[in-house]
Design brief:
248 residues; alpha/beta; Rossmann fold; six-stranded mixed beta sheet; four-stranded antiparallel beta sheet; 10 helices; 38% helix; 25% strand; globular; binds adenosine-5'-triphosphate; binds magnesium ion
């Protein structure tokens, strides 16, 4: 089996409180996995641990079989895990095109990059991303002037031009209109198979639209795993969501 990501017994203990507690799952290469769970379940912390923002207390994370648990955030990004943040990490003063060129070139310094001429291969990748994210009309605009949705799509696009093998998305549709949410679902569905994606999302219409396999977390632990029908019928899942507005 070719797993993109193997998470085994992952735990982080914040002074006696285990925000992620002996969590284990495997994600296939090219899989789109949705992580659900009530507020405080540990979803964001799980992403913090995978991306190296937070160091785990025990357990391990493997990327394509290679252990990355002890690498720092930067090394993990280099190894191929890309993360989209709530506030997009785009260069607001650069144009949309320049942002894509910077991410495609993989050079750490922006200023170096502006003098860097991109290769044919990088150019093609950028073209694909422009089409995927539908940003062709705003390529010359400053990234800081984009709409909320466009900024999110640009950042997602930058993860693709960066060649992130595994993409972590924490509530990518937060603050989006219904239309923007639908477009985000379309983009994510198109990435399925080419990139391995882990997405935390509360919007159940969105989840129903994109999801195949769902992992539910509760109190830092794995509560259930399966397709959407299985998850929605699961008694333990229903119970975990009681008082938090329900899963629907
Ligand atoms: N650095 C930290 N120190 C102590 N506790 C923390 C720390 N980071 C997170 N927590 C706690 O861990 C728990 C899980 O938080 P986390 O943000 O991962 O939840 P979540 O599932 O992403 O919730 P939400 O759906 O609200 O985003 C919470 O109780 C939170 O207060
Ligand atoms: Mg969260």
């Amino acid at each position: 089996m070719s797993y993109a990501l193997t998470v085994d017994g992952l735990t982080v203990d914040f002074n006696g409180f285990k925000a992620v507690d002996n969590f284990t799952t495997t994600i296939d290469t090219g899989e789109l996995r949705v992580i659900l769970g009530p507020n405080g379940a540990g979803k964001t912390t799980l992403m913090d641990l995978i991306s190296g923002k937070t160091t785990s207390t025990s357990g391990e994370v493997k990327l394509f079989g290679r252990e990355i648990t002890r690498l720092n955030e930067h090394q993990i990004a280099r190894a191929g895990i890309g993360r989209k943040f709530q506030i997009p990490s785009i260069f607001r003063d650069l144009s949309v095109m320049q942002n894509l060129e910077v991410s495609a070139s993989g050079e750490p310094s922006v200023f170096k990059n502006l003098k860097y001429s991109i290769t044919q291969e990088e150019k093609q990748k950028i073209e694909e991303v422009i089409e995927l994210t539908d940003l062709s009309d705003v390529l010359k605009s400053s990234a800081g002037d984009l709409s909320h949705g466009q900024m999110q799509w640009l950042e997602l696009g930058m993860l693709i031009t960066q060649d992130a093998k595994v993409i972590l998305l924490d509530e990518p549709t937060a603050g989006m209109t219904k239309q923007e949410t639908m477009k985000t679902a379309d983009i994510i569905k198109k990435l399925k198979g080419k990139h391995t994606i882990l997405v935390v999302e509360h919007d159940m219409a969105f989840v129903r639209d994109i999801a195949e396999r769902i992992t539910v977390m509760h109190l830092g632990k794995l509560l259930a795993e399966g397709d959407i029908d299985t998850i929605e019928k699961d008694e333990a899942v229903r119970e975990a969501y009681l008082g938090s507005g329900g899963i629907h």
